Automatic annotation (TrEMBL):
Organism: Streptomyces fulvorobeus
Any one Pfam family match given in the protein's UniProt record, by short name: adh_short_C2
Keywords: Oxidoreductase
Family according to the record: Belongs to the short-chain dehydrogenases/reductases (SDR) family.
SUPFAM superfamilies reported in the protein's UniProt record: NAD(P)-binding Rossmann-fold domains
Protein name: 3-oxoacyl-[acyl-carrier protein] reductase
Annotated Gene3D superfamilies: NAD(P)-binding Rossmann-like Domain
Highest taxon of the lineage: Bacteria
EC number: 1.1.1.100
InterPro entries in UniProt: KR_dom (IPR057326), NAD(P)-bd_dom_sf (IPR036291), Sc_DH/Rdtase_CS (IPR020904), SDR_fam (IPR002347)
GO molecular function terms listed in the Swiss-Prot or TrEMBL record: 3-oxoacyl-[acyl-carrier-protein] reductase (NADPH) activity
Keyword flag Oxidoreductase: yes
Length: 249
């Protein structure tokens, strides 16, 4: 066995958007669960390397790999790198996404196109490679959002992209019949990440946090626990959208 290869018994996870927020927390949680982890990032190499360093310091195996999730050549190379380093891929957590908020009438079409490219095309491209390459017993975990069922003003474009993610998730689960690969989506509620907090004042954050019966925002750790479940023991959960939102909807 070369020094670049881990034991075959260790499962391997690719986490897109793994340098920050929910993606990073998920990458670190999966490493704690015993996975070797590929931390994908779009542009912030410093944050991605910090995530890798945290995993390695805790005794895990990880490396960072840059790739635009909407670029099919780059994503194929991401999977190539995972297979070369770790021998294969078992779990894909597709946490990469972008969000721009505005009423539909005021939404900039360039912003719409950017969300479409990252959130819809990106999910399609990542899932396509995952469906082609995951080993038996694998799991694909996409990200939707609980905002999809809240119908909040200002979220029309973003929610539309997440509706597409849910459709792809449910259909792909059925298309992979006979492969022993589960496909699910996690739909977080309001979660204390930079993506969520950006542009909101303290009053707005407190008002949103109070909506949940648990009377707080979610944390990346809350969501990572769901990811850990779907990546590991949840073999009978398939073709589902798990709304991890503290009861807000």
């Amino acid at each position: 066995m070369s020094e670049r290869t881990v034991p075959a018994s260790r499962r391997v996870a690719v986490v897109t958007g793994g340098s920050r927020g929910i993606g990073r927390e998920s990458a670190e949680r999966l490493a704690t669960d015993g996975f070797s982890v590929v931390v994908n990032y779009a542009g912030n190499r410093t944050e991605a390397e910090a995530a890798v360093a945290a995993i390695v310091a805790a005794g895990g195996e990880a490396f960072a790999h840059q790739a635009d999730v909407a670029d099919e050549v780059a994503i194929a190379a991401l999977f190539d790198a995972a297979e070369e380093r770790f021998g294969g891929v078992d779990v894909v957590v597709h946490a990469a996404g972008v969000m721009t908020l505005a009423p539909l009438v005021d939404t900039d079409l360039d912003a719409l196109d950017r969300m479409h490219r990252t959130n819809i095309r990106g999910t399609f491209v990542v899932d396509q490679q995952a469906a082609r390459r995951l080993r038996e017993g694998g799991a694909i975990i996409n990200f939707s959002s609980s905002v999809l069922s809240l119908s909040l003003p200002g979220y029309s474009a973003y929610a539309a992209t997440k509706g597409a993610v849910e459709a792809m998730t449910l259909i792909l689960a059925r298309e992979l019949r006979g492969r022993d690969i589960t496909v699910n989506a996690v739909a977080p509620g309001p979660t204390a990440t930079d993506l969520f907090l950006k542009g909101k004042d303290e009053e707005a954050v407190e008002r949103i946090a109070a909506q949940a019966p648990l009377e707080r925002l979610g944390t990346p750790k809350d969501i990572a626990e769901v990811i850990s479940f779907l990546a590991g023991p949840a073999r009978w959960v398939n073709g589902q959208v798990v709304r991890a939102n503290g009861g807000i909807v």
